[in-house]
């Protein structure tokens, strides 16, 4: 959600600010703006509603330039997506951008209005700007005013601030929302261009040397030095790391949308992750997570949001059936707020593509000291969750730009399946021969997923038939029940068709009342002992005039998928669900990569 870019440059930074913002579009936004300071210390702001093209048009009509600037893409929280609510927000001496939510903004706003402040927007961010202006008048120095501001704010924030008349510094702070500082190469005079961004993608065009601020940190950034202070005001050092190119290299290539590219990326991304966790020649697992011993674990709790939660839903079955270990799943936004009974030998696994999901990160922090161990499954090895967790699995699928998760979802499933296999071995549930068979199943995944992607033409045909519907139902049993939930979410996210996923046996407990000739029902019809029951449920739909499409290896007239072992079938159904949602969205003409109202990285509650 939202994105921040800041640059302290040696030359005009206006074009580079917009370039940085363009790399944050994937996070979701509905307005954008930049603020630039000229050599005299005067600040000019340009803002617009909608896509970055509107901001570029605004800049073409009224150009601005400067060697120091901050930019922002906003996903509306307080106040609608209007120009006056867009960032940056400016007062007499302060110009500020903000990600997050200031929870005590109403109290602060009342206080400022009582003192005569007139607000121009509905945002919590403008409250922070006016409060900082007042604190500057009281303290007389930007560092003291900024430190005092952070003591007054309650909630989550990533902040970037420039002060009128100070053309050589940017202030930054984070609490609950990610923020990174980028270090450019040193010039002959010992100075360096400096950068600020919500993530490494925003900084990629400028530098690969990055440090990540920790919660509570604030920084004073100059071209000749950076000072970082922790929440107590003590100056600290944060490690500067070199970000691998694979972390930030993004290109649609020949594909129409990032989502389609990322669907097609999956055989390669799965093969890459597979190579790091399994030895497919010796047919065994490689040693990974060496400090996590499952012989000392009796319970697994999986916590996540959205698509990652459905990956956990699948993994619950894997942990129980493969590792013989009790497993629970919970939605992070619920888990963190209810009373829980922890076990002394409990492992909590949190799953987040970005590693910054606010509720998931809060849940991870909340269980610190209450369970035996905490494992993070992420796609960003430098993220907040990765730094907070006791153990980390990096799914290594590379940047995922489409808002609707594709390769990250299948990467999460493979990571969790691999952890379940490790648990099974260490708990004595899997012997050498059984493990070899399971690893053979994993080794077949890249091929099977490629064969599934080759069905895109048939999936597109089915999508054309489904696209006119206003509602849809997906059903499945066993491992395919969570896949029905995930397929329904994908369809909702990018086509705006209301869809629900159900355990097939639950149809008679209410949902069958919705069946008529206009209701498409997609049946994840996997072979196995429950196939007869699933087909009986589908027959009940057909008997009531519902339109039924079967998806499975022997799904005649529907979508016939490659034959594969039952345990890895969710990967097949994931690809079909993604392609189906994509082609329905194409037929309806929606914004596939940036669907309305959605954000890629949910960094606020």
UniProtKB/TrEMBL annotation:
Gene3D superfamilies: Glucose-6-phosphate isomerase like protein, domain 1, Glutamine Phosphoribosylpyrophosphate, subunit 1, domain 1
Broadest EC class assigned to this enzyme: transferase
Gene Ontology MF, one: carbohydrate derivative binding
Alphabetical list of InterPro entries matching this protein: GATase_2_dom, GFAT, GFAT_N, GlmS/AgaS_SIS, GlmS/FrlB_SIS, Ntn_hydrolases_N, SIS_dom, SIS_dom_sf
Gene Ontology CC entries for this record: cytosol
Boundaries of every SIS domain copy: 290-429, 462-595
Protein location: Cytoplasm
PROSITE patterns, alphabetized: GATASE_TYPE_2, SIS
Transmembrane stretches, start-end: none
Residues annotated as domain Glutamine amidotransferase type-2: 2-224
Main localization category: cytoplasm
Entry keyword set: Aminotransferase, Cytoplasm, Glutamine amidotransferase, Repeat, Transferase
Residues of the active site: 2 (nucleophile), 600 (for fru-6p isomerization activity)
NCBIfam families (alphabetical): glmS, PRK00331.1
Name of this chain's protein: Glutamine--fructose-6-phosphate aminotransferase [isomerizing]
């Amino acid at each position: 959600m939202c994105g921040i870019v800041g640059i302290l440059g040696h030359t005009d930074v206006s074009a580079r600010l917009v370039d940085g913002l363009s790399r944050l579009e994937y996070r979701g936004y509905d307005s954008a703006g930049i603020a630039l300071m000229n050599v005299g210390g005067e600040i000019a702001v340009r803002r617009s509603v909608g896509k970055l093209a509107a901001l570029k048009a605004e800049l073409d009509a009224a150009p601005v330039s400067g060697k120091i600037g901050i930019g922002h893409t906003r996903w509306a929280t307080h106040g609608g997506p209007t120009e006056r609510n867009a960032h940056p927000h400016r007062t007499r001496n302060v110009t500020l951008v903000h990600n997050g939510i200031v929870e005590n903004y109403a109290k602060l706003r009342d206080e400022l209005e009582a003192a005569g402040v007139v607000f121009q927007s509905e945002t919590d961010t403008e409250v922070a700007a006016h409060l900082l202006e007042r604190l500057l008048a009281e303290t007389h120095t930007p560092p003291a005013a900024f430190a005092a501001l952070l003591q007054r704010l309650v909630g989550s924030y990533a902040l970037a601030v420039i002060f009128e008349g100070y053309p050589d510094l940017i202030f930054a702070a984070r609490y609950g929302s990610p923020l990174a500082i980028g270090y450019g190469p040193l010039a002959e005079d010992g100075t360096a261009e400096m950068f600020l961004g919500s993530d490494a993608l925003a900084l990629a065009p400028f530098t690969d040397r990055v440090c990540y601020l920790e919660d509570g940190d604030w920084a004073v950034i100059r071209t000749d030095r950076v000072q970082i202070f922790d929440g107590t005001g003590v100056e600290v050092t944060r490690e500067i790391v070199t970000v691998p190119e694979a972390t930030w290299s993004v290109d649609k290539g020949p594909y129409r949308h990032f989502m389609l590219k990322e669907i097609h990326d999956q055989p390669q991304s799965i093969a890459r992750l597979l190579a790091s966790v399994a030895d497919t020649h010796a047919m065994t697992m490689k040693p990974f997570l060496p400090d996590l011993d499952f012989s000392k674990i009796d319970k697994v709790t999986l916590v996540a949001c959205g698509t990652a939660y459905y990956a956990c839903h699948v993994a619950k079955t894997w942990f129980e059936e493969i590792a013989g270990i009790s497993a629970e799943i919970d939605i992070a936004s619920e888990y963190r707020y209810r009373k829980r009974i922890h076990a002394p030998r409990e492992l909590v696994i949190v799953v987040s593509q970005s590693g910054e999901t606010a509720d998931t990160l809060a849940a991870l922090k909340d269980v610190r000291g209450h369970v035996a161990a905490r494992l993070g499954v992420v796609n960003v090895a430098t993220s907040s969750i990765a730094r907070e967790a006791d153990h980390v699995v990096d799914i290594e699928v590379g940047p995922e730009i489409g808002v609707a998760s594709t390769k990250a979802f299948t990467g999460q499933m493979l990571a969790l399946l691999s952890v379940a296999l490790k648990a099974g071995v260490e708990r004595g549930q899997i012997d050498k021969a059984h493990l070899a068979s399971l690893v053979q199943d994993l080794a077949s995944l890249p091929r099977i997923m490629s064969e599934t992607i080759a069905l895109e033409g048939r999936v597109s045909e089915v999508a054309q038939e489904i696209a006119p519907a206003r509602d849809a139902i997906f059903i499945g049993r066993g491992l395919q029940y969570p896949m029905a939930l995930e397929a329904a979410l994908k369809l909702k996210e990018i086509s705006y068709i209301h869809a629900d996923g159900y355990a097939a046996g639950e149809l008679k407990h209410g949902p069958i009342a919705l069946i008529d000739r206009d209701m498409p029902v997609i049946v994840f019809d996997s072979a196995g002992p429950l196939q007869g029951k699933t087909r009986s449920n589908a027959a009940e739909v057909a008997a009531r005039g519902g339109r039924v499409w079967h998806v499975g290896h022997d799904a005649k007239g529907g979508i016939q998928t490659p034959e594969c072992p039952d345990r890895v079938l969710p990967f097949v159904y994931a690809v079909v669900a993604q392609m189906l949602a994509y082609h329905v969205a194409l037929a309806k003409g929606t914004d596939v990569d940036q669907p309305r109202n959605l954000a890629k990285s949910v960094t606020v509650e």
